[in-house]
Amino acid sequence: YLRERERHDWSHVHLASCYGGLYGRPFIESFEETPMLVAVLTYMGYGILTIFGYLRDFLRHWQIEKCSIAREKENQKDFVPLYQDFENFYTRNLYMRIRDNWNRPICSVPGAKMDLMERTSRDYNWTFEYTDRVVQDVINLGSYNYLGFAENTGPCADSACEVTMKYGVGVTSTRQEIGNLDRHEEMEKLVAKFLGVESAMAFGMGFATNSMNIPALAGKGCLILSDELNHASLVLGARLSGSTIRVFKHNNMQSLEKLLREAIVHGQPRTHRPWKKILIVVEGIYSMEGSIVRLPEVIALKKRYRAYLYLDEAHSIGALGPKGRGVVDYFGLDPCDVDVMMGTFTKSFGAAGGYIAGKRELIEYLRSHSHSAVYATSMSPPVVEQIITSMKCIMGEDGTTIGCKRVRQLADNTVYFRKRLREMGFITYGNNDSPVVPMMLYMPAKIGAFGREMLKRNIGVVVVGFPATPIIESRARFCISAAHTKDIIFREQGC
Ligand SMILES: Cc1ncc(COP(=O)(O)O)c(C=O)c1O
């Protein structure tokens, strides 16, 4: 079957190329449909696991098999069950079998290679014990270290150390009170300059940047149009805002336009008053699909229907575009066309936290209205310094071309890695330029087997299955880094 794939039967692949003159470059994404035989075998795999799950639950009920999962207290056994649902059944009977593939503790910097702490389980993955052995130099194909700035040597680490000596680690106050450091102000100016917008504000956590700022921007009487594959932090933010949420098909512009048109024509339910605000929420790179947002089309639609655009660049900032400025740079667009630019420092910058950037009025408004701006302790100084130093490096403001080379290296590695996987006959998802590379595994047994077999070969990978993906679309998700050399990726493995 794999050999057959080598012939690149593109007839099964959905290609989207230059579209209505909006794109200045070819836009190629492939999402091959699950082949029928594979789908049938995958469902059979889940069927067999489910039958065994029920059998084992029967044995556990009669205490023939031991079970350590959360269960109702004996004195509350007449209550409506607190823990009984399908996901609990799934966790107990399917996830537990392959749980060793996740949460593995690492004991080094998560660079191109990393060290793992070896652990074993004597009770079929219910609990783990450490063997005190360290598995060294495991190739890291899982961290979001796109530009290789997750490192413990070099200018970023040195400046973070220096700043720690001067400012310490904790700030112990909020930005509004005594936690507003000169380093925070410098970082925010730099972020605005990096993105080419008027102003920016940073927050201590990327997840909270979304979940706490969307409620400050939208509320009752507003409509949020959200891509179906948006990150949990965006979904939570939209729900907390109290706005009406409508979901459009992933990256599907017909679906988005239909919702926009309906929103304009019908207005709010019952009263038919116009919506107070319509906010389109999308991501730059989708981290499970490896797809890139069709930004030129989204911007055209938002202008046509006078909606606002919230763009989450968690995975694309630093990782896309000739200058590493994200998806706006990738498509050669004007950053001012995006109303709210959001991103995180956790990935390409090897730090922590998130930002919101855009017009000065937007940022001033958020400074006093966002819960994460007002009530959360401000960012730790070494983290701020890591962001400043890595961002200056990408911008070439450190007087070197290191940052520029890393951006180019990441783009080259991505194209090379995707091409080699295709040549080897694997089915990959997403955009050709996306450093997030999902490789389809489909069958449940392969999720655990692939993760374990790769680790035997000293390669650390992330495997993903239901509920993070549709049930028949389990996959391995590789994240390419500028720190990976071609030798690391392929030759060392003799592939
Ligand atoms: C699209 C997106 N937004 C927000 C976040 C949250 O960012 P953080 O991990 O920095 O809290 C993530 C995390 O992976 C993400 O993928």
From TrEMBL:
Record GO cellular component, one term: endoplasmic reticulum
Q: In which pathway does it act?
A: Lipid metabolism; sphingolipid metabolism; Sphingolipid metabolism
Q: Which coarse location class describes where this protein primarily resides? A: endoplasmic reticulum
Instruction: List GO BP terms, alphabetically.
Output: ceramide biosynthetic process; sphingosine biosynthetic process
> Required co-factor?
pyridoxal 5'-phosphate
The UniProt record lists the keyword Transferase: yes
- Coiled coil (UniProt feature): none
Question: Where found in the cell?
Answer: Endoplasmic reticulum; Membrane
Q: Which UniProt keywords apply?
A: Acyltransferase, Endoplasmic reticulum, Lipid metabolism, Membrane, Pyridoxal phosphate, Sphingolipid metabolism, Transferase, Transmembrane, Transmembrane helix
Give start and end of each Aminotransferase class I/classII large domain.
137-487
Task: Tell me if Transmembrane helix is a UniProt keyword of this record.
Answer: yes
Residues crossing the lipid bilayer are 36-55
Tell me the GO molecular function terms.
pyridoxal phosphate binding; serine C-palmitoyltransferase activity
EC number(s) stated in the UniProt entry for this protein:
2.3.1.50
Database matches in InterPro entries: Aminotrans_II_pyridoxalP_BS, Aminotransferase_I/II_large, AON_synthase_class-II, PyrdxlP-dep_Trfase, PyrdxlP-dep_Trfase_major, PyrdxlP-dep_Trfase_small
In the record, the note on similarity to other proteins reads: Belongs to the class-II pyridoxal-phosphate-dependent aminotransferase family.
- The identity of this protein, by name, is serine C-palmitoyltransferase
Query: Which species is listed as the source?
Result: Echeneis naucrates (Live sharksucker)
Q: Identify the taxonomic lineage of the organism of origin.
A: Eukaryota, Metazoa, Chordata, Craniata, Vertebrata
